[in-house]
Amino acid sequence: MASGFDGLFLVAANPVDILSYAVKEFSGFPRERVISSGTSLDSARFCDEISRYVEVDPRDVSAFIMGEHGDTSFPVWSNASIGGRKVTDWIADKTDDVDGVKEKIYTNVRDVAYRIIETKGATYYGVATVLARICRHIIEDSHSIITVGACLEGEYGYHGVYMGTPCILGRNGIEKIIELPLSEEEKEKMDISYHALKTVQDKGMKEVQG
Prior knowledge:
The chain has six helices and ten strands; from the N terminus they run βαβαβββββαααβββα. It is an alpha+beta fold. Helix 1 packs across helix 6 and helix 2 packs across helix 4.
């Protein structure tokens, strides 16, 4: 900061949401200029898994993984759609066991990183792909919607924690945090994720700041 840096921070190191908050606090930057990669990769994998099952192009799938980039993340089925139609309806066209398929899709998303690490040692390429995509949206000032980690200050009723949520990205960073309407079950999962992050964050910041 002493060099006069006046750009944006895009944080990808884990625990990414907590480190993003630390960067924001230490840099003094406004929240829109400190971005966590958050659940961007999780959401991309979610769309890919859905597309494989219903056999459509993943670019046509609108679906999000929200919350912590970690064990308390959750899929937002209530807002997942393809061509203006709910993903659950697409799944129902192919099976009577909609809940079972939903669980399998999310399990694959949640566990794929472990399988990749076991096979290749690390998840280099998936992370690199979403970081490149985020950077492209910023550089091109595209105002595109992508799920990243944003510092919530009232959105969803939370304050002072980075969590994965859809955002509009442009040259100035996060142009807008999109506050999705969540089902009651999803709200409960968001709350669990918030408290998991806040507990670790408060402890870590206290230790660092002495």
